[in-house]
Amino acid sequence: MSLEDRLYPLLGLYQQMPQGLRSSIGAVYRLLPASVKWGRSYVDFRRQTLEIESWDPEEVREYQFRQLKRTLNNAANFCPFYHQRFLESGFNVQRLRGPEDMENCPLLEKKDLVDNLDDLVSTDIPRRQRLYITTGGSTGTPVGFYLQKGVSRPREQAYLEAMWRRAGYEDGDRLVVVRGHVTDSRSAGRIDSYDPTRDWLMLSSYHLTLDRLDEYLEAIEGFRPDILHIYPSAALILAEYLEKTRQQWRTPLKCVLCGSERLTLPQKRLLEKTFGCRVYRWYGHSERVVLAGEGRESEFFYFFPTYGLVEFGPEDEAGFREVIGTSFHNMAMPLIRYRTGDYVRLLDGPGERELFWPTVTEVSGREQEFLISGSGRRISLTAFNMHSDIFDGLYAVQFYQDSPGFAEFRYLPTPQFDRSRLDEILRGITEKLGDDFRVELKEVGETEKTSRGKHRWVVQKLDPLSFS
């Protein structure tokens, strides 16, 4: 197991320490080699990311077939849910002859994870090697799942770095991060904190109001980062402010890393003009099933063939297909033909692609959605995403807002949901949104959905741009 995974349960305690003590501990930790911090798996996955671009299609197919057989055998033999599902559908792992045969395997829905969590876990992996993670996702559908310690997080780190290197990232770079970090729950609180374990400056995504944006610019200029790692919505707020106040971006950057939200090409062009460097996009999700990032030169999204198996659902009327993925390396809780609820537009024809991997030109969903606080703060719903078990037992959650500083939090409970937890949920939401926001909980029989039937994080009746 990696040192990162061993120390992860102590993260809360570390964050409560005085800044001086955190800085001393973090500075020592930062000096450790990546192989020590992330473990042997990280070294292996990093090597893999450096080699796979030279593989030919047959090498890729052989690797995928081996990983599929390993994943499916684990699921059929040690996960009660899959054992029963495969029997009912007549899917026989031993008849699999290649990745193309996966179309005969049943699909996995998000609701299956909520209703059958324990039966989806592999009994072959000891409890001590599992790490429980939750996400509200981009659609307002809370999902809890298990990762495999010593494998899942080191792999994610190796693959993220592989994508970022295409844009100029190097080991040891100093980053300013504006991605949902809570620095202070007070609307007038502090906007920054320093992470000495990585030499990163963490800036709040929750205090981006007009009267405080100069503080952000001063903090960034004072830190002199190599890279800005930021939600697209936050980057656009900064760009909009610079344009309105007739200021120029003054901090030289290697690149801007923009993930987790949709960023259109016109928006990307605006950010590149503002920041004077490349803006790099990628697509992934907390369940860690599939991952895609832009190329070194092109702006297509290329799915890593060694990260997981990606399939695409039928084309809808707008030309988009749902992303369906099968995990390769998470033996603690394999996700097989998992419907992500995300939609993409496939590259039509060969195009000027850099890699023969599955390639898409556009990712739909993950929109830049906001709540508006009483003081006019625009709070990104991506930043709000809760990575704790607070929403366990809920099929869906959704904000409804029609006035600044107030929102209705609608929730759709499972039959097993314990309503005594509502006070805990309200406290958790309030802590995230801040002291200039009031929330009222409301149980519903269903939540509003998009035209594709996806749950929506927020039903917003206000115009966020009028609060910039």
Task: Give the tags.
single chain, alpha/beta, GMP Synthetase, Chain A, domain 3, twelve-stranded mixed sheet, 22% strand, globular
Short description:
By secondary structure, the chain is α/β, with parallel strands linked by helices.
Largest sheet geometry:
12 strands, mixed
Number of beta-strand segments:
20
Number of helices: 15
Share of residues in strands: 15-25%
CATH class placement of the domain at 370-467:
Alpha Beta
Name the structural class. Answer: alpha/beta
Report the C-alpha radius of gyration, rounded. Answer: 22 Å
The CATH homologous superfamily name of the domain at 370-467 equals: ANL, C-terminal domain
The name of the CATH architecture of the domain at 370-467 is 2-Layer Sandwich
Shape label: globular
